[in-house]
Amino acid sequence: MIPFNKATVTELEAACVADALQTGRLSGDGKYTAKVYEQLKQRFDFNNVLLTTSGTTALEMAALLTDLEPEDEVIVPSFTFSSTVNAFLLRRARPVFCDIHPDTYNMDESLIEGLITEKTRAIYCVDYAGIPCDMDRINRIADEHGLFVIEDAAQSIGSTYKGKYTGKLAEFTCFSFHETKNYAMGEGGAIVFEDGKYLDRAEIIREKGTNRRQVLKGWVDKYTWYDIGSSFLPSDVLAALLYAQLERYDEIMARRVAIWNRYHEGLKALESDGKLQRAFVPDYVEHNGHMYNIKLPTDRIRTGLVEYLKQQGIMAYICYVPLHSSPMGLKLGYRPEDCPVTEDCGARVLRMPLYYDMTDADVDRVLEETDRYLRSAL
């Protein structure tokens, strides 16, 4: 069996988690949370970062920090996970779905200005497959119209755009450290903001609306209720797991990129023969090997390939059912034809298995079976 995803866990992760358990400090903001912040500062120069219980709650914190209100509009791609939109729907803001590029599957920034109204407050852009969006153009549009930019970088930690790491590209950046991501803490995430003016309020929102974090810093001797908020901080035990993963950052990155490259080279002939479209990376991006995706000629061919690979013990999955044409999207008044490129990609894009412990032989087997099916089906 070749699974779709498998977290990499070594003796280092086990040792760090065991150490965290023995400290007697199992709640958030302990020793290992501080060590993770130190790692993120040294590697990415993140000055203002807070760990969260998930990438989802990082996105929710961004909605709170930008004071989104009922009936505010947020421009967002439909080709993403529900968390991106739920984050501001919980504030009763309204999604305005933007179509995507047919190659990167990222938001088509050329369409954004046509979607802006007097109610628009923010742009939630998504780095699909670890490929950053065209952030220069998105930020320029946002600046011209006085909008917030929230980068959903759940898949793109370690990727760069024109030499700059994600986390340094937008006013707010939200990462995920879910089990399926390159660096995992089981369930977890982080919010990063370039402007330190947000830090104090973010710490309060993250601590159920209280200034408890100031007590931990020794600034005050008691804490009280200051703002709305929730329990957004993860256990230090989970931070210990993430610390170990980040200690292995270079080896994990190198292996994932090597697997990505093996797929890319191995699928070249099939693309030349018109059997599929390979993953695309703009020349101004250095990606993190998070995902390898292909686009098949039809939905029927994709379904057939998924079933065939499953029969061979290989798990491959579709990416997203477009949000605008999902049951919730239809309930909100959207129609499939509102985002035609998204609708087409949603029917034809397929994610291949990719994880650190995947061997070259595993990748070659996926390539061989994919080639066998597509050459017989097309």
Short description, anyone?
This protein has 378 residues and is of the alpha/beta class.
Description:
Helix 1 packs antiparallel against helix 8, helix 3 packs parallel to helix 4 and helix 9 packs parallel to helix 14. The protein is built from 14 helices and 13 strands. The chain is an alpha/beta fold and 378 residues long. 40% of the residues lie in helices and 14% in strands. The two termini are 26 Å apart. The longest helix is centred in the last third of the chain and has 18 residues. The protein folds into 2 domains: 237 residues, Aspartate Aminotransferase, domain 2, CATH 3.40.640.10; 129 residues, Aspartate Aminotransferase, domain 1. 50% of the residues are buried. The strands form 3 sheets. Strands 1-9-8-5-4-2-3 form a 7-stranded mixed beta sheet, sandwiched between helices. Strands 7-6-10 form a 3-stranded antiparallel beta sheet, with no helix packed on it. A 3-stranded antiparallel beta sheet has the order 11-13-12.
